[in-house]
């Protein structure tokens, strides 16, 4: 490997421009962004010009056949995660793939197997894991401050937050709506803090009540005539260790807050709300709330990219693994299956 990590970017859209590329540039002493590709070549060219990226391509295969790369960020719609990730892994690159892992469990398993065969890292863009709140709470959990966590709630709710850009309302390209998009963030956060227990059963329900009609859009106007995903999903997950989790996720719902992203944990020795971080315990005959203060003010995306770079250059392995990605995908697709059939699904 060269003195600097040579990185390629797949997909030149918003997540690449606002999260991946700027944060690679923050560690430019150790990283060189060598190439970028997008099926919309003009977008790739404009992004390359904006960030001074020297090589531009219209496909993953072309990019991987170009100047040598050590690592690749996958910033495409969900439908293209699997093929791009596997191609990069087989080309000898470490991969940071945006969430969710894939469109199906089979795809996530293929990606995990490809990473194992290549001997390269495959990690996912669950940036909430890298937030100051989750980073801190994870240390409390590992120290036993919450005891065995037996119940959790994952919340990703918007009042009128249907994205007015991108392909987020296109089921063929995304695989679903809020559950697979924003819900997966809070689901992953909860599972990470719980130690990623083995799921055994799910029960889910989805609703399409608001997205298919014109209305107030707090994230821009969306194409309601071609809205093909759920606007709300709810679900219940049971784990092999007896723990349970409830998830609520919506792009649009008649609730108070426009944007609520949170995880609530309940354990034998304590509980917690993650955002903002507060820990609930009983100590010395009194109920106490513990709120850590003066936490390091580092953005979650910045820490995510820095840790990926560290791992690729020989540091600690990524904290999000392919095996966890498969487990998460199993829950998400199980919830969608349950919603479609009206039955519980054993995993």
How would you describe what is shown here?
This protein has 347 residues and is an alpha/beta fold. It has 2 domains: 5-126 and 302-316, 3-Layer(aba) Sandwich (Rossmann fold), CATH 3.40.50.720; 129-298 and 328-346, 2-Layer Sandwich (Dihydrodipicolinate Reductase, domain 2). Helices cover 34% and strands 25% of the residues. The longest helix is centred in the last third of the chain and has 20 residues, at 322-341.
Keywords:
Dihydrodipicolinate Reductase, domain 2; 2 domains
What is the gist of this entry?
With 347 residues, the chain is of the alpha/beta class.
- The largest beta-sheet arranges its strands as 14-13-12-11-7-10-9-8-15
Return the average pLDDT rounded to an integer.
97
Number of H/I helices: 10
Label the overall shape: globular
Provide the gyration radius in Å: 20 Å
At CATH level 2, the architecture of the largest domain is 2-Layer Sandwich
Structural class: alpha/beta
* The CATH class of the largest domain: Alpha Beta
Q: In total, how many domains does the architecture comprise? A: 2
Which regions are unreliable across 5 or more consecutive residues at pLDDT < 50?
Answer: none
User: Which band does the percent of strand residues land in?
Assistant: 15-25%
CATH topology of the largest domain: Dihydrodipicolinate Reductase, domain 2
Helix content: 25-40%
Helix and strand string, N-terminal first? EHEHEHEHEHEHEHHEEEEEEEHHE
The number of distinct β-strands equals: 15
Major sheet characteristics: 9 strands, mixed
For this structure, the quaternary state is single chain
CATH superfamily of the largest domain: Dihydrodipicolinate Reductase, domain 2
How far the N terminus sits from the C terminus, by CA atoms, comes to 41 Å
